[in-house]
């Protein structure tokens, strides 16, 4: 029986991951801690209600050390001395910057949603906040330097920069904790039809979540420090230059 912690679980991929795990038998999944910054979504509340004591929503702001520490203490108390088996670090933000990196503000600027964020704030949220939780999993091919030319026209330089930093951070953890038996890796869940991915994305969020869980469940030391792609049958040889979901390793 395994225990999981999933960040960013109130919607999108994080919520779909919680749902996929909740469907598995208790012999496979004992407990899932689902972290969220704000109020529980109705969907997460329903999943937790259907699996009382097994799906546990927890408030946590990944950019706030005090909030992280409180969440850690809550998880420790529920685990009752047992270690956490899997951490799927999914939370992140992706600002759109029309016109490229020259228009990415160093100071605060208003986003289309009305929220104010700066380039430094996105780096703090997507990268530094993840360091404090000690693991990172969910990345994107937009963070691949080798494939940067392919995604040149995507107007989200801060997102690309922070994901590339996240990738290197994961490698450092993989190297630093390899002797202790930990496995750290990043994977791309695909371009999914979420609030972030939009309706024109490649895959339903459920498809991406199912593929992610499959990789995580089968993870071993061979995956340590690697950048993995999900596998979706029929997408291995997609003619688009952007995304092929072939289950292979992604170039850094």
Automatic annotation (TrEMBL):
Q: Which family does it belong to?
A: Belongs to the short-chain dehydrogenases/reductases (SDR) family.
Q: Molecular function terms in GO for this entry? A: oxidoreductase activity
* Protein name listed in UniProt: Short chain oxidoreductase
List, alphabetically, the PANTHER family matched: CHAIN OXIDOREDUCTASE (CSGA), PUTATIVE (AFU_ORTHOLOGUE AFUA_4G00910)-RELATED, SHORT-CHAIN DEHYDROGENASE/REDUCTASE
The record's GO CC annotations read: cytoplasm
- Pfam families, alphabetically? adh_short (PF00106)
Show the Gene3D superfamilies listed in the entry: NAD(P)-binding Rossmann-like Domain
On the tree of life, the source organism's domain of life is Eukaryota
